[in-house]
From TrEMBL:
Residues 76-282 form the Fumarylacetoacetase-like C-terminal domain. Gene3D superfamilies: Fumarylacetoacetase-like, C-terminal domain. InterPro entries: FAH, Fumarylacetoacetase-like_C, Fumarylacetoacetase_C_sf. It holds the Pfam family FAA_hydrolase. This is 2,4-diketo-3-deoxy-L-fuconate hydrolase.
């Protein structure tokens, strides 16, 4: 299934993409693509419904029908840093011995095609295409062997980052990762049963039509399975939590010399089987 949320900002409704690429309304079945709807029982209920029997939503998704973030009421937006061997190499960083964990504030979350704002005074706003993992079955102290049973599905995340705030201003990375609009998520969550191997997905990102990132989840240091189990040692994971699992090489920081986003530019990004995002860059 491809589950999504559509409509105006703040008033999104739950939906599902049918086999013709049209949106069908799920608001008579669930109140949101969130929480218990993403638990195994909730997904099983949705899987039993024929999308063709649901109301058809007028408009073409990502054209004249806005999509919001594909998961609603996200409780935790957890990120993994330097999780691709080739990205660590381009930044000059050592391969981490354990996953590097940081957070994006949930106020950063926007739809897949919403504008991305460059914060006031920022000179180093950057891009990162990432595989997002959505938790379905909640858990704590999860064994690696059981970790994938806790995954509801996958989505595209753009981990937009302000490198000065992240690296040069002291403290943790979080202040450079959680600015408003720094978390485009979607266009839809593809349920785990449709992704045969999350460790073999092509991913890419363009700025104004120029390809900067062209990688694959094959080069992840810590796999989805490992990351889910690892995080559950330090926090409980709940249905609808999102984990952004790191980025391949080609970020602006890694260019020689570094290249950063400017108002007026456009980012396009995608992951094999998970859809495409497109964001215009604007000044805050």
């Amino acid at each position: 299934m491809k589950l999504l949320r559509y409509g105006p900002k703040g008033n999104e409704k739950p939906g599902i993409l049918d086999t013709s690429g049209r949106v069908r309304d799920l608001s008579g079945i669930v109140d949101d693509i969130a929480g218990e709807a993403l638990a195994p029982e909730g997904l099983a209920r949705l899987r039993g419904i024929d999308p063709e029997t649901l109301p058809l939503v007028v408009g073409t998704p990502q054209q004249d029908l806005r999509l919001g973030a594909c998961v609603g009421r996200i409780g935790k937006f957890i990120c993994i840093g330097l999780n691709y061997a080739d990205h660590a190499a381009e930044t000059g960083a050592a391969i981490p011995a354990e996953p590097i964990v940081f957070n994006k504030w949930t106020s950063a979350i926007v739809g897949p095609d919403d504008d991305v704002e460059i914060p006031r005074g920022s000179l180093k706003t950057d891009w990162e295409v990432e595989l997002g993992v959505v938790i379905g079955k909640p858990g704590r102290y999860i064994d690696e062997a059981d970790a994938m049973s806790h995954v509801a599905g996958y989505c595209v995340v753009n981990d937009v980052s302000e490198r000065e705030y992240q690296i040069e201003r002291g403290g943790t990375w979080d202040k450079g990762k959680g600015c408003d609009t720094f978390g485009p998520t979607g266009p839809w969550m593809v349920t785990a049963d449709e992704i045969a191997d999350p460790q073999n997905l092509k991913m890419w990102l363009d700025v104004d039509g120029k390809r900067f990132q062209d990688g694959s989840t094959r080069t992840m240091i810590f796999s989805v399975q490992q990351v889910v189990a690892y995080l559950s040692r330090f926090m409980s994971l709940q249905s609808g939590d999102v984990i952004s699992t790191g980025t391949p090489p080609g970020v602006g920081l890694g260019q020689k010399p570094p290249v950063y986003l400017k108002a007026g530019q456009t980012m396009s990004l995608g992951i094999e089987g998970l859809g495409i995002q497109r964001q215009h860059v604007v000044a805050a």
